């Protein structure tokens, strides 16, 4: 049902995501709902998240592209007030990937981790590596 | 700021002293119902009142939608002319600088580049690529170039996507006034011209409405009238004195805090009072004064009847003695039975309960004091509502009837409307004097006494006017034929109206000046005593107020020890309180 009247734009974006995936990013629509995407982002090389596979769920609301795609709790301006309909799923996912390369401890989801990052970055990076190995090793 | 107004008011008062004194003649004679004099002074008054109201009218203007659009258009045109820019750009600039024409000019000529960047005005128009067909940046479809549009930046989007983009922005609220090109790397502003071409009618109207609202809401000198459903705005001359404004919808409010008009009370006092009226603080006081907490679960318990054996409500069910708050298990015959507690009596002898009892007592007193002022405040509020209803009734029904019975054209019956308007206004002032009284410090006995005297007189004067406007009017409404006494009634009511108006004007000024004439520094500060004299000398039939102003020599006065009233040296007892001079 949700797949009838799927805007041409979503179809085009999906086709492009599948045919020319961005490096380190895969996004594939769910079989029974074309607005629902399973996303995997590889941890960027030379980041503490290297070697990790990060799974995300992305949903395109009815108003898309006038409204931003829905992702989990990620502090990213383009998912909020800086959304523009000229942005795409691809640009959003690339932004998230970039966020893994350069975390922003000034706008954190977890205050504790941000504090740790700011006071002792080396130790925080070690923790990130450890957690990547434990929880995001793709198993 | 405050002090600026104070001094301004004070100097106004000085300069108008003569007016007030001339009005005082009426104050004195008002009660005498001396027709000739009243009629005469009434004319005199109308003149001076004209000056007063004109003076007050000048500091604000009521605007309707047409006025607002006109003013907005004028400002836009001015900026557009001075900057040689389009109307749309001028509008965007003005909105960015909160509709301050001078700020736009200043910033623009100081650093045009920065202003352009901040507002999103590009130096020159970029055309869309000159090809027959173009892809839309939103729907990714290819459209003929003629079916695409772009802002000054040349980023092409199809009409349908523009419609959706603008529609979403307008739905999200007034932020749509700062809309930019959909391209995330571009900051070109989208102005009203594009909205008008590309949006659906409903969104165009909403946008235009937001633009209108912005002109009032983002402007330092304008505000909407806060009355529900009222669509007028007030353009206020900042720094011009009294904040009281009266909207064309008949709602009077304070421009500064947008609460209802509240002279002579300050905005901060009104805020405190309103908070107090609505806040839980009074509930807490009541609980403190009238209940004790259960010794086990700490819930407050009010004991309204029965013996001292209290059982807390489930689930607590704790049984205790109301007096000593000890467990009931230790009570019974040996502690004095169900209605006494000798443990409590013994402990009380030793002063163990003094502190909590004292606190309870204080809470009770403070609650009673507040209740006293609140009740009177609320009563005057209700009386005002009633007077408003009466006024409406007179305007819509009685006036016409009266006009027929008494064979008077309705235009000649305006004095009745004026009397009722005065009643409404006085009720409002009187109401706020109770908030004033509540916050007048307890220890300033002289001020409190003087204040209560002024307030009492105000109440009495207002009652007289209200009585005349309501009851005496009834006689002429029920008459079969025109009554010749109607002319007397006119003179009396018009006289009472101006007498009361003057009294209340003086009262407001006296209270606004903080009753500064009263206090320990009275003697040295006596040059300011005009206000209290204005009001109080109505009780001095033998004294000519005119001569007292002309002879500004204060050595001719002595100050009553009891009430601090300034008496002419010829008096042997105080005119105010009849205390003898020593």
From TrEMBL, chain A:
Domain UBC core: 5-137
Matches recorded under Pfam families: UQ_con (PF00179)
InterPro entries linked to this entry: UBC, UBQ-conjugating_enzyme/RWD
Transmembrane domains' residue ranges: none
Name of the protein: UBC core domain-containing protein
Lineage of the organism: Eukaryota, Viridiplantae, Streptophyta, Embryophyta, Tracheophyta
TrEMBL record, chain B:
GO molecular function: ubiquitin protein ligase activity; zinc ion binding
Pfam families, per database record: Ariadne, IBR, IBR_1, UBA_ARI1
The protein's Enzyme Commission number: 2.3.2.31
Signal peptide: none
RanBP2-type domain location: 554-582
Residue ranges of domain RING-type in the record: 132-345, 136-180
CC cofactor: Zn(2+)
Keyword Repeat among record annotations: yes
Composition bias, Low complexity: 524-540
Highest taxon above the source species: Eukaryota
GO biological process terms, semicolon-separated: protein ubiquitination
Comp. bias intervals (Acidic residues): 1-22
Location of region: Disordered: 1-46, 515-551
Compositional bias of kind Polar residues: 541-551
Family matches, as InterPro entries: Ariadne, ARIH1-like_UBL, E3_UB_ligase_RBR, IBR_dom, TRIAD_supradom, Znf_RanBP2, Znf_RanBP2_sf, Znf_RING
Function per UniProt: Might act as an E3 ubiquitin-protein ligase, or as part of E3 complex, which accepts ubiquitin from specific E2 ubiquitin-conjugating enzymes and then transfers it to substrates.
Protein name, entry field: RBR-type E3 ubiquitin transferase
């Amino acid at each position: 049902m949700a797949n009838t009247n799927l805007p041409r734009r979503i179809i085009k974006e999906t086709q492009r995501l599948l045919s020319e995936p961005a490096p380190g990013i895969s996004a594939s629509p769910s079989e029974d709902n074309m607005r629902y995407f399973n996303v995997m982002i590889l941890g960027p090389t030379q980041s503490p998240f290297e070697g990790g596979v990060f799974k995300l769920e992305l949903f395109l609301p009815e108003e898309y592209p006038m409204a931003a795609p829905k992702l989990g709790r990620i502090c990213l301006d383009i998912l909020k007030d800086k959304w523009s309909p000229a942005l795409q799923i691809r640009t959003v996912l690339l932004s998230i990937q970039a966020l893994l390369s350069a975390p922003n401890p000034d706008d954190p989801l977890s205050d504790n981790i941000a504090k740790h990052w700011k006071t002792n970055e080396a130790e925080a990076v070690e923790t990130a590596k450890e957690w990547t190995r434990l929880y995001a090793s793709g198993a | 700021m405050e002090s600026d107004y104070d001094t301004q008011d004070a100097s106004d008062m000085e300069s108008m002293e003569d007016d007030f004194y001339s009005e005082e003649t009426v104050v004195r004679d008002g009660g005498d119902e001396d027709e000739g004099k009243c009629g005469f002074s009434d004319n005199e008054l109308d003149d001076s009142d004209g000056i007063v109201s004109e003076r007050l009218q000048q500091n604000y203007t009521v605007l309707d939608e047409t006025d607002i659009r006109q003013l907005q258009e004028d400002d836009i045109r001015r900026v557009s002319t001075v900057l040689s820019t389009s109307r749309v750009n001028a509008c965007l600039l003005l909105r960015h600088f909160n509709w301050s024409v001078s700020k736009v000019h200043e910033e623009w000529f100081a650093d045009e580049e920065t202003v352009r960047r901040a507002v999103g005005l590009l130096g020159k128009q970029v055309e869309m690529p000159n090809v027959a067909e173009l892809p839309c940046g939103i729907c990714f479809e290819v459209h003929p170039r003629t079916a695409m549009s772009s802002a000054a930046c040349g980023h092409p989007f199809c009409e349908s996507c523009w419609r959706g983009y603008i529609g979403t922005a307008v739905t999200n609220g007034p932020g749509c006034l700062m809309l930019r090109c959909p391209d995330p790397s571009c900051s070109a502003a989208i102005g009203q011209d594009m909205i008008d071409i590309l949006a659906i009618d409903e969104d165009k109207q909403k946008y235009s409405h937001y633009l209108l609202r912005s002109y009032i809401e983002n402007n330092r000198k304008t505000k909407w009238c806060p009355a529900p459903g009222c669509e007028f705005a007030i353009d206020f001359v900042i720094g011009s004195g009294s904040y009281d404004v009266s909207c064309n919808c008949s709602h009077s409010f304070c421009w500064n805090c947008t609460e209802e008009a509240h002279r002579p009370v300050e905005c901060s006092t009104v805020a405190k009072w309103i908070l107090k009226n609505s806040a839980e603080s009074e509930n807490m006081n009541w609980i403190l004064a009238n209940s004790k907490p259960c010794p086990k679960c700490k819930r407050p318990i009010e004991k309204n009847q029965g013996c001292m054996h209290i059982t807390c409500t489930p689930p607590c069910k704790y049984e205790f003695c109301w007096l000593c708050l000890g467990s009931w298990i230790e009570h019974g015959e040996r502690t004095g039975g169900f209605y006494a507690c000798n443990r409590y009596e013994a402990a009380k002898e030793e002063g163990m309960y003094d502190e909590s009892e004292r606190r309870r007592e204080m809470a009770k007193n403070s609650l009673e004091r507040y209740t006293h002022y609140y009740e009177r405040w609320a009563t005057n509020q209700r009386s005002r509502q009633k007077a408003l209803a009466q006024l409406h009734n007179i305007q819509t029904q009685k006036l016409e009837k009266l006009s027929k019975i008494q064979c008077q054209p309705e235009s000649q019956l305006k004095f009745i409307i004026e009397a009722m308007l005065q009643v409404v206004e006085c009720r409002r002032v009187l109401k706020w004097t109770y908030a004033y009284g509540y916050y007048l410090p307890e220890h300033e006995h002289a001020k409190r006494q003087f204040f209560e005297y002024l307030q009492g007189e105000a109440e009495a004067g207002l009652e007289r006017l209200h009585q005349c406007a309501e009851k005496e009017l009834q006689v002429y409404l029920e008459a079969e034929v025109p009554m010749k006494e109607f002319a007397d009634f006119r003179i009396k009511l018009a006289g009472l109206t101006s007498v009361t108006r003057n009294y209340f004007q003086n009262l407001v000024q006296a209270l606004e000046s903080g009753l500064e004439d009263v206090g320990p520094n009275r003697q040295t500060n006596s040059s300011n005593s005009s206000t209290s004299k204005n009001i109080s000398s109505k009780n001095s039939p033998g004294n000519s107020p005119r001569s007292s102003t002309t002879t500004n020599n204060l050595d001719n006065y002595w100050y009553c020890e009891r009430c601090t009233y300034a008496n002419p040296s010829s008096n042997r007892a105080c005119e105010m309180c009849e205390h003898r001079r020593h």
